[in-house]
Amino acid sequence: MPTELTITISLTIIAYLFGSISAAIITCKVMGLPDPRTLGSNNPGATNVQRIGGKKAAAITLFGDMLKGFIPVLIAVLLNSDELTQALVAVAAFLGHLYPVFFGFKGGKGVATAFGVILGISWPVALVMLLTWLIIAYGLKISSLSALVTAAAAPFYFWWLTDSTIFIVMGSFISLMLIWRHRTNIKRLLEGEEK
Length: 195
Prior knowledge:
Blueprint: H1 4-19, H2 23-30, H3 46-53, H4 55-78, H5 83-98, H6 111-121, H7 123-140, H8 143-161, H9 165-181, H10 183-190
Helix pairs in contact: 1-4, 1-5, 2-4, 3-4, 4-5, 4-6, 5-6, 5-9, 6-7, 6-9, 7-8, 8-9
């Protein structure tokens, strides 16, 4: 019988590998579109895919990136793993998207995958985050700003809705990484050049 530690390590490795699958690159290849790493913002994410191939390709990418975060966490939850294991699996899937082993460790910014892992951890937190993103996106029409505000609010939402120190730390880490990955967007926002 595998020990709890063995299960935790195995689930974490699988989550990272699952997160390393690039929905953007695969979607563009299947749909005959250019590699998203070579056009637009050069970012393999849904927003750049929309620039290259339109809303359908972007929606497929968004859903794929979300699923690759959600599925590993859901498996950990269904196996009745403890909070630490769930958090490690969530972070591993998220980091897989940011630094994918299959694509030279050059991945996307992580918004959809972050939402997927958070949905797996706590659907109430994910729901409030989605509402936050929609309100900012609808009001200001700037995708990156919506992501940044939502990311900054994530630790508070975890504190408010889960009361789990482990999940608060996990949410804070994901939040900081999202902000770091959007640093060029922040620069453009400050300069008034962000689209």
